[in-house]
Amino acid sequence: MAIVLCAVVLAVVEEFVFRGVIFGACSKVNVRAGIMISSLFFFGLLFAVVRMATDNIGKKLKDELAGKDVALLLYARRYNV
């Protein structure tokens, strides 16, 4: 339930910030510019979040695999495998 609530809140905040604040401010000058600027801001945020998530997953996977390698090495030394 908490995950669903978090997703809904994030979606509402994202819509408010990118469609309401950024697009609203930029579209007063030029609608096309407002669309492009709010889209670029959204892309930048999304790219940063995805990169952060994949970097963390890659690091955790690398650490996990390195830990298993060490455990296998210690097992092989202990039992002369």
Task: Write a brief structural summary.
This protein is mainly alpha-helical. 93% of the residues lie in helices and 0% in strands.
Description:
The structure is a single chain. This protein starts with a helix and ends with a helix. With 81 residues, it is an all-alpha fold. It is built from two helices and no strands. The model has no long low-confidence stretch (mean pLDDT 77). The chain has helices at 2-27, 31-79. The protein has one domain (2-79). Helix content is 93%, strand content 0%. The longest helix has 49 residues, at 31-79.
Determine the fraction of residues in helical runs and give it as a percent range.
over 70%
Beta-strand fraction estimate: under 5%
State the end-to-end CA separation: 48 Å
Order of helices and strands: HH
Counted beta strands: 0
Specify the number of helices: 2
Q: Characterize the largest beta sheet: strand count, sense, and whether it forms a barrel.
A: none
Helix-and-strand structural type: mainly alpha
Mean pLDDT: 77
Instruction: List segments where confidence is low: pLDDT < 50 over at least 5 consecutive residues.
Output: none
Question: How many domains comprise the coordinates?
Answer: 1
Structural shape: elongated
Rg on CA atoms, Å: 23 Å
What are its keywords?
81 residues, 2 helices, 93% helix
Write the layout of secondary structure elements.
Elements: H1 2-27, H2 31-79
Helix pairs in contact: 1-2
